[in-house]
Amino acid sequence: QMADPFRYDTGERSKYECLGHEVQIEHIKAYVCRPSFFTDKAVIVIHDVFGWLFPDIRYIVDLIAGHGYITICPDFFKGTDPWKTTDHWADFADWMRDHDPMKVDKEADVVLKHLKEQCGAKKIGVVGFSWGGMAVHHLMLKNPHLAAGVSLYGIIRDSEERYNLLNPTFFIFGEKDHTISYDQITLLEEKLQQYCKVAYKIKVYPGQVHGFAQLKPEDMKPDDKPYIEEARRDMIDWIKMFI
């Protein structure tokens, strides 16, 4: 049985009043937040196992939009149930088989087309958390239209082709994340040095567990707050460097 990878009780997060709105793009629902001024820069946010309705991910969308990007979080589960806090971890592997983060290409293409044709976006990046972090890693290997990516605590395992990134990618990890071993991070670093021809960065944040960077300010523990805020600043800085 898989241990619960979250130190934070996801059932007791504070509520969140969203700044954006929901839209329908072909077969996909999405949450969108725009800055108050015109921009031709956009960021796709890929949610974790808790899906596009989860308050924490909407907070992140609003946060990125506040830095001057059309920011969109599509429902990559296409209306099917996200993982719930009441679900049993023994069933997680089966659930993952039906929700494969390496099968997001079609939805990503639909959203990219929408951003370019309907929103006038010229440069588009992608940020993803956990399940979404794996999806970002996958997309940065496959989709040249994404100008930069930030993958937060999501790692593609058991594949030699995971190192030839097409565009600049930043990998964020928590030191105490027991879903990703330090050996896996070291291997990623070694292989990227060997194969990767674009800018990349790997950073590990001290004492942080899986899911640390999504927390809203009122849900942060005081000891973790500086690292969470640093990870967010680093994420935004990477986006601004390339988009």
From TrEMBL:
Pfam families: DLH (PF01738)
Subcellular localization, as worded in the UniProt entry: Cytoplasm, Cytosol
Boundaries of every Dienelactone hydrolase domain copy: 28-241
Gene3D superfamilies: alpha/beta hydrolase (3.40.50.1820)
One Gene Ontology molecular-function label: hydrolase activity
Domain of life: Eukaryota
GO cellular component term of the entry, any: cytosol
Primary subcellular site in the record, as a coarse category: cytoplasm
Family: Belongs to the dienelactone hydrolase family.
Designated name of the protein: Carboxymethylenebutenolidase homolog
Source species: Nyctiprogne leucopyga
